[in-house]
Amino acid sequence: MKAYARCRAGAAQLALALLTAAMLASSPAHAEDDDVTDDTVAEETSDETQRSQADDDGRDDGVATDNDPLRSLNRPIFAFNDALDRRVLEPVARGYDFLVPERVQGWVNNFFWNLRFPMVAANCLLQGKPDEAITSMSRFIVNTSVGVLGFGDPATRFGMPQPWEDFGQTLGVWGVPGGPYLVLPLFGPSNFRDGVGIVADSAARIWPYYVDWWVSLGVSLEEGLNLRATYLEEVEQARERALDYYVFTRDAYLQRRQALIDDRLRFGEYNDYSPPPPPVSDDLYTLPEEN
Prior knowledge:
Elements: H1 2-25, H2 34-56, H3 71-99, H4 102-115, H5 117-126, H6 130-145, H7 154-157, H8 167-173, E1 181-184, E2 188-191, H9 192-204, H10 213-230, H11 232-241, H12 245-261
Antiparallel strand pairs: 1-2
Helix pairs in contact: 1-3, 1-9, 1-10, 2-3, 3-10, 4-10, 5-6, 8-9, 8-12
């Protein structure tokens, strides 16, 4: 019951955080753009819906659709998420990026990744990786002390790369199939297996149990905003270069998740102050086969 309540609270906090960001972006100075924004969001959602209907009519997007049988539902949700990001989250993140130096953003990312130690260590054990669980615990001790509450990452320089495990990966290691691709409102790309993982990992984030809801909300808002600001250029380039941004995002997500399950993508391969980007692949339009 406690885990269930925590998951519901986490979802409510994220929704409230997005609404808060929306109020910031729709201040009186931008009131004259409200009608245009609403029309644009509706048009983008309509375009994605029509594209989905075209797929259903037999004009395939060039990708095996067996892994995306819900695309007629996924595309409108993806369009809504993308429009929300373009009209609310991205403008706020650009303002944040202008005010906060890149190095400071990296420190903030380090801090939040350090707080994930219980979740990462637990999933390392569940996957039969005791050495990585010990590494995760050692990193937490070193970075919390020498790294000043986790804002720094001296553990990486000391030869302790960050294990990167979550419950969705654990289920994959156990042989649980991913199931159909799924786009979640607000949360974005997922599948049935990773959806269960999100619930379990939310319950494993121990620190929110010990603070007031408004503190947890503020921290979650800062974490999401800082991470979005970190990837401003990467997201913009993906939108510009992708022939179909929905397909690009779907394939990149599924390939990245499979690489994590297979331990082909390691956190320690990247720098010590920002989380790793999606894996680079020459083939972003082929879905990995389910085991």
